[in-house]
Design goal:
Shape: globular
Number of helices: 4
Largest sheet: 8 strands, antiparallel
Low-confidence stretches: 19-29
Mean pLDDT: 85
Length: 173
């Protein structure tokens, strides 16, 4: 009986040594949600985005300039018809966020640029990185200061950390 057990144990041992382990890589499943509720996101996303719809603050690329002027609630900071832009600013204590809407000859929005100078820049970058990862899928790291995402509608979002000041830029085009 002991010999039978010993033979079985040796057979099992040698059989198991001969098998190679198979490594199974699990791909991370990314759930893209372009309609993510803003109130579930970080503080900076809630403050800057204001609402879930649109690419920024309820607006889409291609919206009429008149619509921006009618519905944008931030205060106008600068406007140039020659250079075709209007900039709104949001002040928070020692922080500010400028939102520039650039438009074309037909007065349709072609680019939205956010310039943020805030204390706690890392939390700003983390909030928006997480938001865009959920909204558009995991972004590409272009270099040590820039990440980018592409929407289903074809526009590109870039999140850029400024090197000289406590700031960041978001470009949507």
């Amino acid at each position: 009986m002991k010999q039978l057990f010993l033979y079985l144990a040796l057979i099992i041992f040698f059989a198991s040594c001969g098998e190679k382990e198979k490594k199974v890589e699990k791909k991370q499943e990314v759930v893209i949600n372009e309609n993510i509720p803003i109130d579930t996101m970080g503080a900076w996303v809630r403050l800057v985005m204001k609402e879930s719809k649109g690419v920024m603050r309820g607006f889409e690329l291609g919206d009429a300039l008149d619509s921006i002027k009618k519905y944008e609630k931030a205060k106008i900071h600068d406007e140039s018809q020659d250079k075709k832009f209007i900039t709104y600013t949001i002040d928070f204590d020692d922080d500010f966020v400028d939102i520039t809407y650039q438009y074309n000859e037909q007065k349709k929005i072609k680019t939205i640029r956010i310039n943020a100078v805030v204390n706690g820049m890392e939390s700003f970058l983390e909030d928006f990185s997480k938001f865009y990862d959920i909204r558009y899928g995991v972004g590409k790291t272009l270099n040590d200061s820039t990440r980018s995402w592409k929407s289903k509608k074809g526009y590109q979002v870039k999140l850029i950390k400024k090197k000289k000041e406590s700031g960041a830029v978001i470009i949507i085009e």
